[in-house]
Amino acid sequence: MAYLFQSTRHKQQRGDKAPWSVGWYDPDGKKRSRKIGSRSMAEKFARKVEGQIAAGTYDVNTKMTWAAFRKQYEETILSTRRPRTQQQTRYALDHFERIIKPTKLAAIKTATIERYIAKRQKECSGLGKRPVAPATVNKELRMIRAALRRAVRWELISKAPVFDMLKEDRPHPKVMPDEDFAALLEHTSAAMYPDKGPIPAADWWRALLIFARFTGWRRNEVLELQWEDVDLEPDASGLCWAVCRGESSKGGHTDRVPLTPIVAASLQAVRTLKSPLVFPWPTDERRLYADLDRIARAAGVTFPVNGRRTDKFHALRKTYGTRAAMAGIDQKSLMALMRHKSWSTTERYYLDAEALTAKAVEKVDVGPAVLRVVG
Asked: Does one domain contain both 47 and 70?
């Protein structure tokens, strides 16, 4: 319970006009006090502290500023994350600071987050006059939430605000038809780069596309694969293997992945000792997509997923995931192949529902009795 008192020193100096203070024990049993002023204000503050302790919302470190916390968070936590994660997190925290202008860390409540959401989703994106997409706002919210949850672990605040995510349009991943993929392989000669390597550009692209389509690896994972992590000598079970390093993987963990025969054969065709990388790309990333566009135009192929450039490579990953599901691979194995931590990610973003439904309908048995009547 909180209690009121006047310090001896203040009473000696000011007598009956001495300011009132409030004393209490925090949830950790530590004795605390604060000078308030008038008795009525002290009584009000005492009730507030008692209510916070009873409700579990008491903030231990009410003097910690947002700026000091962010500096500590970036130095101790964010600095250990991947460069891309660091960049995106700082971007999200910058938006939060610009809109909310937070001062004290303890002052950030659920209402603060709701105010941020309301203002942020009314802003226009940098690509035009369209409002910021709900997916973008949700991505920023997840990063802000991670930071504030760390503040709870550090006991700087008692609990993190509640984050209500915006509803997003459910994505509709589409598979690339085998005929379209075959056409891409037939027109890799349209590529211009890499133009100075030991492997012709057409062969380089053919091997890259086959690897991406039949492993489901992400673009960076493919481009950062090194020959020392590839074993093209079949093991006792007849499988070849490749290691996807945590430094390249989005999930940050290293996985040993089996390679299908078509992938192993394509790697054998481009095997060279000239570079430690399996797919060295010495020029600008924009030329990578420009070359892929040249191949697609020459083949008369339109990628099934439009939008960002990266979706062109992700189309092959989504095709791999859907084809694996259509082959009857169980959920746990499919998650392992896609290297996802949750099934919901695999199901929502990487499975073509229409393709799976069409495959399932083929298995529905009408029955001989019905066929006799229908004719």
From this structure: no
Tally of structural domains, the chain: 3
Domain that holds residue 232: 178-361
Three-class SS of residue 201?
helix
Taking the C-alpha atoms of residue 326 and residue 348, their distance in angstroms, rounded to an integer, is 15
Q: What is the CATH number of the domain that holds 326?
A: 1.10.443.10
Q: Structure pTM?
A: 0.65
- DSSP result, 235-291: -TTS-EEEEE-TTTSTT---EEEEE-HHHHHHHHHT--SS-SBSS---S-HHHHHHH
Burial 233-264 (b: 16+ CB within 10 A, else e): eeeeeeebbbbbeeebbeeeeebebebeeebb
Backbone phi and psi for residue 257, each to the nearest 5 degrees, phi listed first: -120, 130
Convert the pLDDT of each residue in 196-223 to its tens digit.
877 889 999 999 999 999 998 988 899 9
